[in-house]
Amino acid sequence: MSQERPPHPPSFYSQIDVSQIGTLPARQVPGDANAEIIHLLRQILAAQERQIALLQDLTHYWTHLQRERAQELAQWRQANPELAKRCRAAAEVLARAHNEYLHALTQEVVENADVLQEGEFMLSEFIDRFGPRIAHLNGLLHLLYQLGALSEQQPKAS
């Protein structure tokens, strides 16, 4: 009952033979290589030209949308001049409140820096406490500034 053992134990490493098999491919004629390079460069150039055309189309699209939005806002301001003034005044008041809120927020961060860095719970509480309020306030400020912004045609009051 003897089992035959392989002559060598299985190896954890394999060997790869990197010796040359057959002959090297025939060397290309330099003219063929240059033609191939020129062909590849033309393909790259064509791809870049397509990218430029797409970027120009995107730019025109977004510029068009921006101009339409600016015209709509200008028409709204002309139709509602008193409300536009009130939006501007409200934005200025909210900007001061926003600054005070940011001051309180940053003071809270400075005073509780260690706790916020070490405790996931405290960081979540901080974000829950300040995050939604600041996000909504930013949205309101943005809206009021857009609606109450002075258009280029309106002279600024001194």
Structural commentary:
By secondary structure, the chain is mainly alpha-helical. It is built from four helices and no strands. α1 packs across α2 and α2 (81-111) runs antiparallel to α4 (120-148). The radius of gyration is 35 Å and the shape is flat.
Count every beta strand, where a strand is a DSSP E run of 2 or more residues: 0
How much strand?
A: under 5%
Terminal residue distance: 111 Å
- Which parts are unreliable, with pLDDT below 50 for 5 consecutive residues or more? 152-158
Q: What helical percentage do the residues reach?
A: over 70%
Largest beta-sheet details: none
Give the integer mean of the pLDDT values: 83
Given the helix and strand composition, which structural class is it?
A: mainly alpha
Radius of gyration: 35 Å
Globally, the shape reads: flat
Assembly context of the chains = single chain
Number of helices: 4
N-to-C series of helices and strands: HHHH
